């Protein structure tokens, strides 16, 4: 599977100031030296760069995520122009997916029409009820953002209900102290959103979770999510659905090999392109500190896209993705978990050769999902066989 996701920093500024934001408050202030917004000239260069890259790499899919900062700060005119540009330049050479991850504060009917016009999937960042969300997602004057985000979400929902928009999705950063049944109940029952994704709070193995109680808290929170999902089967909770996908239909080994690609195959790699055309690795590695700070950044004018993805750092990332940490070797969940997300495995001393800092919590979640399967008639022997088999990659 040759698939690449480009996180395109169309706006390197934000209209709010979430206190957990690594991009602006994580110590890397390089964004200040780059243009606040992607210009038409650089967007045209990027379109041509990615078109050529998609051809060179023979990509089957390229995802461009309009990202920031707050991507909608570029304004409707530029957003319209850039979508047209990418569709016309790249659409003919690969399967192009456009999406945006926004805080939702600026969404109105005009934006909804633009998303529909260009088939742009929209993820809104929201962390729960007003009380939960507004603890961290605040504006520059320290005021909560929940009410204004919900207004944007409502505009998206009306567009979707009238057949002229896209189905909104919510991306939430889990607050382990909150009751996740309340959070998900708010999204689903009160806001009417069925498609939800979640992120665990940013951290690395070395940084840890604070204290032991917090790890147990995350396990409890993940269990609450599972419980909610079982009671509300209409909800699509991406990360947990991916776990259950492993237990779906069996793929013969040769089919899996095709799905997985051969050694060194580019699959699901993420590239950040900043507002000045600089290439970087994914922001999700920010908790790794120095490792990410020392990672190369290159101008797209100096290196082709295929060569960028052939840089040693991408080989290191792919090798880490393909290698189970030593301590995970005997783990019953290893085939599914793979040691967790790379940034959660990192320490200066051992690189990515650590189990996820969320290991204990993940094990609680996996166990409770499997108990649910068995309770609902999925044969126990089959659960065990599936845990011992390679993941169903085509379903992922
Ligand atoms: S559950 Fe823990 S030990 Fe098992 S593979 Fe995941 S991180 Fe490693």
Describe the fold and architecture.
The chain is of the alpha/beta class and 396 residues long. The protein has a domain at 3-257: Aldolase class I (TIM Barrel). 42% of the residues lie in helices and 13% in strands. The protein has 16 helices and 10 strands. It has helices at residues 22-25, 40-57, 76-90, 109-118, 130-136, 146-161, 180-190, 212-231, 238-245, 253-260, 290-293, 305-308, 312-322, 334-337, 359-375, 380-387, and strands at 3-9, 61-67, 95-102, 120-125, 169-173, 195-199, 236-237, 269-273, 278-280, 298-299. A hairpin with a 4-residue loop joins strand 8 and strand 9. Helix 7 runs parallel beside helix 8 (212-231) and helix 8 (212-231) packs parallel to helix 15. The protein starts with a strand and ends in a 9-residue tail after the last helix. The model is unreliable at 250-264 and 392-396 (pLDDT under 50). The protein binds iron/sulfur cluster (SF4). Iron/sulfur cluster is lined by residues 328, 331, 333-334, 337, 339-340, 355-356, 359, 362-363.
